[in-house]
Amino acid sequence: MANADCIVIQGSNMAECHPVGFQWVTEAKARGAKVIHVDPRFTRTSAVADAHVPIRAGSDIVLLGALINHVLTHDLWFEEYVRAYTNAATIVHEDFRDAEDLDGLFSGFDPESGQYDMRSWAYAERDGGHVEGPSQDPEHGAEAVDEAAGHELGSGGAPMEHARIARDETLEHPRTVFQILKRHYARYTPEMVQEVCGIGPEDFAMLARTITENSGRERTTCFAYAVGWTQHSLGSQFIRTASILQLLLGNMGRPGGGIMALRGHASIQGSTDIPTLFNLLPGYLPMPSAGTHDTLQEYLDAIASKKQKGYWAEADAYTVSLLKAWWGEAATAENDWAYDYLPRLTGAHGTFQTLTRMLDDEVDGYFLLGQNPAVGSSNGRMQRMAMSHLKWLVVRDLNLIESATWWKDGPEIASGELRTEDIETEVFFLPAATHVEKSGTFTQTQRLLQWRHQAVAPPGEARSELQFFHELGRRIRQRLAGSTDERDRPLLDLTWDYPLDEHGEPDPEAVLAEINGHHLTGPQAGRPLSSYTEMRADGSTAGGCWIYTGVYADGVNRAAARTPAAQQVPTAPEWGWAWPANRRILYNRASADPQGRPWSERKKHVWWDEDQRRWVGLDVPDFPVDRAPGSRPDPDSGGAAALAGDDPFIMQADGKGWLYAPKGVVDGPLPTHYEPQESPVDNALYAQQRSPSRVLFARGDNLSAPSDDDPGAEVYPYVFTTYRLTEHHTAGGMSRWLPYLSELQPEMFCEVSPELAAERGLEPYGWATIVSPRAAIEARVLVTERMRPLTVRGRTVHQIGLPYHWGVGRDAVVSGDAANDLLGLTLEPNVQIQDSKAGTCDIRPGRRPRGPAQRELVEQYQRRAGLTTATGNTRLDVPVPDPGATAEEEGAAHENPAGNVDIAPEPPENPRRET
């Protein structure tokens, strides 16, 4: 970021939420870079930016899509980069129909499952067929497992045989990705931006001019985002739109370019790399699915093809090495390396699916580790009620957080909905060590592993996660010792032999060494692996996470590297360790032109050295180091050998950056604007109001507000969005127990514009009650011009800002109502993240009612709005496309949608969820 000429921060308040990383923004600005902040609120980031562009929450695809249209229509795209390095010239199969053709749907939608069959999105073969993955690819709609396959392709893209792909290098064929892209975004105009986002033409022109003037051979633009983008029902597609724009401008793989996913200090990146996610294994290998991946070969055939380009073709080596790391000598060729020890997905098993199962009395016990769902998760009332259905609950935390005390002082105790004496949940609180009381790695923004050294010993009985789980595993294995039950073998055969230090704690460096991996056989047996390219599928290597291989090369903890900046090159390769291979910029082959020369001297990063016949530069080349720029592979080859000298995107199945995603994104091959689950306006672009693929929980305890001019929408006329503060940390467990931080931000508050305050009679620093279809909370009123009314679709849209750090309980220094109580449960379909950044509500002066009257107020609003479980939960607003219809017949059907019906009838009183 420090090398950027322009930085667009959108979906993040970086100065407040990532203040350490913001150092690099200020350094870029000091060197002359332009900084633009696009956000609903004017924040401390906005205050130090060159410009702030206010936007309506949830409308980002329209703004980014209009920038794409601007770049294409004014020929501002980096032509040589795009032609050589992207799939712009690839031809899409003739069966594909765009959202522009079907009024908001793509071809292949199945209204019963709410998912797409992606076969029509595929590339065209040279002989006119489809270029698809293996026949058992689980992403096809009919074979998908209950919406659990969203991110199953992990870091490798979709398997496909690259040699058969049809291309038109002139970009003139109407079904090239380039022409489809132009048609798709043609209606995303500055006028549409003003109508949908509330952004005026002057601001749009400034933004478009700034990013295009700072892109190309000599200059680069960087985008940065955080949960302001991800926590939407379209979150993955927000990021996809930015990636399309950055590819068109030639900003990917180059210094000062790219898209920076801002990650928090508590190893947020690490928790997805070595995942706490239900559908991924370490290194973004997919979790097997029952009935689809019943054998190791079926699994490997589904996740990768040996005929695809790039290093993901070696996924079998990564998988077998993982199995050997976990089960050691028990993993043999005869038992498919203990593949059957892995669990199988039988559906979506995420946090919120588990929540509904808890409410249905299908879950006995629950561990909470570094989470405070009573405060920090969507629909807090639903979270707390679900915990009251458990038999036991284990909370490991630093303080007695609200998720440990809801049974005695939570909001539902105060309202009378729950009584302590009636709750049968047995709650165990176990004290946890803080990040300064334990050693290990954090993986942060830029994929950077950094070693933290223990500063002090944890107090009392507090324990690190490593010690806790090591001891828990040891005790479980003791209980199972001697068991002959096959179901116990995966636990008994685990390699659970970590060395202990003088205090009896497992050595964290030994865990890092296991993650890195080592040779098991041959002359190098016992030597740590230096690169994931050393992994083999024959059982001769073990490694716990292939993308981390190299962090412990030669037995050296490279995450602990701390060489000062003045003593090394600008990319700082000796400060921490970045996966993969300590590479600081991914896809950096794209920093040089197709001939291997830097695009400019100013932006040189890696380049081809003709004398040495290898790639050299300021970074570890993200490319086969001896692959010459002009080389062309054997068409029948696969893996790294199939990469041409100008295929920089080495983990993609065709070696190209994807302007169009033929597979791998379950809600569409191109980002498309839909309104949030709750919206004050209709969709200006399509008759399809909301994403048809969003994950719904149509339940009586998770009602949604009507949108636009639907009956009852006027009951919840305002938009609310949540955010975080510098002074508090997430749900408050590390900050509301500290007097000095609590003093800085002592009370829950809401930010409203002067116009909204006048409209609703809100007094500065007085109280307000905010009511959504789920809850009513109270907050102090902060009247500020930081929240600007926007004109959207001809009406004034007011937005309310709510920090989400407070919770109700008696143990913290300060407490207050939780903003996340207002949120409903609607999930993004690719990664199953909650939609937390755009909802609708009412706001009224004064404090909320106490006792049972609080719930009665919420129910009064529900009755006035006429809410049912079907409200907002219809899948389709347009006719379902007929797969056999011609384009003309499809057009006629959409002009006369008489056959369109509501496919989400009134669910039963307490259904599981609509699928």
Describe this structure in words.
It is globular, with a radius of gyration of 27 Å. It has 915 residues and is α/β, with parallel strands linked by helices. Strand 25 and strand 26 form a beta hairpin. The strands form eleven sheets. The chain has a six-stranded mixed sheet. A five-stranded parallel sheet has the order 3-2-1-8-9. Helices cover 23% and strands 13% of the residues. The chain starts with 5 loop residues before the first strand and ends in a 20-residue tail after the last helix. It holds the Pfam family Molybdopterin.
Strand order of the largest sheet: 24-26-25-31-23-29
Shape: globular
Query: Mind summarizing the main beta sheet?
Result: 6 strands, mixed
Can you give the helix content as a percent range?
10-25%
Tell me the β content.
5-15%
Mean pLDDT: 92
The N- to C-terminal Cα distance equals 41 Å
State the low-pLDDT regions, or none: 133-151, 892-915
Strand runs, count: 31
- Name the structural class: alpha/beta
Radius of gyration: 27 Å
Q: Number of helical runs?
A: 25
Cofactor: [4Fe-4S] cluster
Subcellular location: Cell envelope
Main location: other
Domain Molybdopterin dinucleotide-binding: 719-822
